[in-house]
Write a structure and sequence with these properties.
The complex is a heterodimer. Chain A is an all-alpha fold. Helices cover about 70% and strands about 0% of the residues of chain A. Chain B is of the alpha/beta class. Chain B folds into two domains: about 5-85 and about 135-220, Rossmann fold (3-Layer(aba) Sandwich); about 225-300, Alpha-Beta Plaits (2-Layer Sandwich). Chain B has eleven helices and 14 strands. Chain B has helices spanning about 40-50, 70-75, 95-105, 110-120, 135-145, 165-180, 195-200, 220-225, 240-250, 275-285, 300-310; strands at about 5-15, 15-25, 30-35, 55-60, 65, 80, 155-160, 185-190, 205-210, 210-215, 230-235, 260, 265-270, 290-295. The chains are: A mainly alpha, B alpha/beta. At the A-B interface, helix 1 and helix 5 of A face helix 2, helix 3, helix 4 and helix 6 of B.
């Protein structure tokens, strides 16, 4: 160890101001600082980015070409027009699982403990995380949209409606990030966050109108599928992309997204403040 | 004013009482060693003092600020290094330090200057722009401690700073902590290593099962259990008991002798060491006991712990640290 060239600590200096700055500007700055911690790491982890890109491409191609020929859906001449919004919805939702994995990793490594011992605006740890995952999801969406376009998916309605559908999908993925954040804070390991984050999303996304019409499901399953918030989301987004009126599904979908965000951001923040998982 | 003052801290996790009323104080510009085996309540104490955990009862102040009523005020005055290096592997060393500086609300320019200063101070300048993932264990630890010094904290908390380090890194860490202390950093460090507390701490608080069982300087603790220790190693394990008996009759001052069957040693407290060794050798020789080694040594904190708790610090029930 080299000799100290500078005085590193000043505990011998008389009382100094250690005022903690407060107010919305600092809340925003802390949140941005935390979001940047995750975002600046993205290009350094090309593997992760590649997989996050390949998976949606694979889903679009598999469903479209493997099932596309055999699946008929009422009201749609082209399965692609029906399917792609469903794949969009499923993929952005699956993308939210990264939030849980990331939070669990921060917990396991003691990074959450360190952040909790800093005089920062504490909610920015989770807000920064969910916002950075939203940015990642926007990228994923852009890739999927391009692939969808290449295989013949077209916006049949107005551009405004298509933008609305896209925002709705992203809002849903953001809401689900908070569910995942709560999971990430509650489990003991990254591996557990991985399974706990994904497992329930399979029935949620498959028992829905995302890939097939719910009309051909057994009655009990159909009841679940019709009430599934994911069905509401898919129906609303699909209608908006295809230029048909989304009806009540749009309001249901927005209400679900708002509700999930409020409830789970509250639960996750409380869990965080109480010392997370311990 | 004390740099840290805790009075009657209690904390339970379900049915487990982790802390049963812990009192401790740290004088400014000194090092307090919180010593105890795994599960004694060291980490729980640190977590309460650093606002990560709320106590069920009792109160505590850090640099004069109450941990319960103004946690954010406390956070602006402390640095914390936990048991495991809390470093984000995806960032570079420089970015890690800059990130902490920003969260302490330094201006960008100041956060960067401070980052470079600390990297140099901790011998990490060459690795500054490398991603932490490629750092060695010792480098991570150094970066971890550097991160807790970004704000020039009034009190530095080090929770088992050398746990998991290889012997060489451990010595390096000791040197580093000694330098920080020489610069006047008030430090509270926890450890389960007796030699570590002895070497680094001005005052020591011994904690066991959530209670303080002794406190004082290392010398004062030693004073509590009398003078030097005589340690006799014999050749044959079956002669240990007879050796213990003979030594007890010859020179015990207080307490019992201690027999370590694995090391084949008998340890006993002695008061007068004048001509003791030749006397003991003759005594055992006359009894036909083959002696391998006879040593007189100062008591270690190991002896203190044994005396206070009736069991050695290392031989623990392997109770998990609850928090």
């Amino acid at each position: 160890m080299t000799a100290a060239t500078t005085q590193i600590t000043t505990s011998t200096t008389p009382a100094r101001t250690r005022e903690v700055p407060r107010g919305p500007v600092w809340m925003w700055r802390d949140t941005w600082t935390e979001a940047m911690r995750h975002l600046r790491a993205v290009p350094r982890n090309p593997d992760l980015l590649i997989f996050a890109t390949i998976q949606p491409i694979m889903f679009v191609l598999l469903f479209n070409y493997v099932f596309g020929g055999s699946i008929q859906v009422p009201g749609y001449t082209s399965y692609t027009q029906y399917l792609i919004p469903g794949v969009f919805a499923q993929t952005v939702l699956f993308g939210s699982a990264f939030t849980g994995i990331g939070v669990a990793e921060d917990m396991q490594k003691g990074i959450i403990d360190r952040l909790r011992s800093l005089p920062m605006y504490q909610p920015s740890v989770l807000i920064g995380r969910t916002v950075s995952d939203l940015c990642r999801n926007i990228f994923t969406f852009a890739v999927m949209f391009a692939v969808g376009y290449l295989i013949g998916f077209r916006i049949e309605g107005t551009v405004l409606a298509a933008i609305g559908a896209t925002l709705l999908l992203l809002f849903f993925s953001y809401a689900f990030s908070w569910i995942q954040a709560l999971i990430g804070l509650s489990v003991k390991s990254v591996e557990a966050a991985n399974s706990a984050g994904f497992i329930w999303m399979f029935p949620l996304t498959f028992v829905s109108s995302a890939f097939v019409s719910t009309a051909n499901m057994p009655t009990w399953l159909q009841t679940f599928a019709d009430w599934n918030p994911f069905t509401k989301l898919t129906n609303a987004a699909r209608a908006l992309y295809n230029g048909t009126p989304p009806g009540a599904d749009l309001w249901y979908a927005i209400a679900w997204a708002v509700g999930i965000t409020i409830v789970f951001s509250f639960l996750a923040s409380r869990k965080y403040q109480r010392g997370a998982g311990r | 004013m004390y740099a840290v003052e805790a009075v009657g801290l209690k904390k339970s996790f379900g049915a487990t009482e982790a802390l049963r009323g812990v009192d401790l104080t740290v004088e400014p510009a000194t090092v307090l060693g919180l010593l105890g085996p795994n599960g004694a309540g060291k980490t729980t104490t640190v977590r309460i003092l650093t606002t990560l955990l709320k106590a069920d009862a009792g109160r505590a102040t850090v640099d004069g600020v109450d941990v319960a009523s103004d946690p954010r005020g406390v956070r602006s005055r402390i640095g914390l290094t936990g048991q495991y290096a809390a470093v984000d592997e995806r960032l570079t060393g420089f970015e890690s330090l800059e990130h902490v500086g920003r969260l302490f609300h330094l201006r960008t320019k100041d956060a960067r200057a401070r980052a470079s200063e600390l990297l140099e101070r901790f011998d990490l300048t060459d690795a500054a722009d490398r991603v932490v993932k490629g750092y060695s264990g010792g480098m991570r630890r150094r970066l971890d401690i550097a991160m807790s010094l970004v704000s020039r904290p009034a009190v530095l908390f080090l929770d088992e700073p050398t746990t998991g380090l290889d012997p060489r890194s451990r010595l390096g860490m000791w040197d580093l902590i000694e330098e920080l202390v020489a610069e006047g950093t008030t430090t509270l460090l926890t450890t389960q290593y007796l030699d570590e507390a002895e070497r680094l701490a001005d005052d020591i608080v011994v904690i066991d099962h959530g209670e303080v069982i002794a406190k004082g300087t290392a010398d004062e603790l030693k004073g509590q259990i009398g003078g030097d220790r005589l340690e006799v190693t014999v050749a044959r394990p079956d002669e240990l008991d007879r050796t213990a008996e003979l030594l007890h009759d010859r020179c015990a001052v207080s307490g019992a002798e201690r027999v370590d069957r694995e090391a084949r040693t008998v340890t006993i407290a002695v008061s007068d060491t004048h001509k003791l060794v030749p006397g003991v050798v003759r005594l055992l020789d006359d009894a036909d006991i083959e002696v391998v080694d006879v040593v007189i040594r100062r008591p270690t904190l190991d002896d203190v712990f044994l005396q206070l708790t009736g069991r050695a610090a290392e031989v623990d029930d392997a109770e998990e640290e609850v928090a």
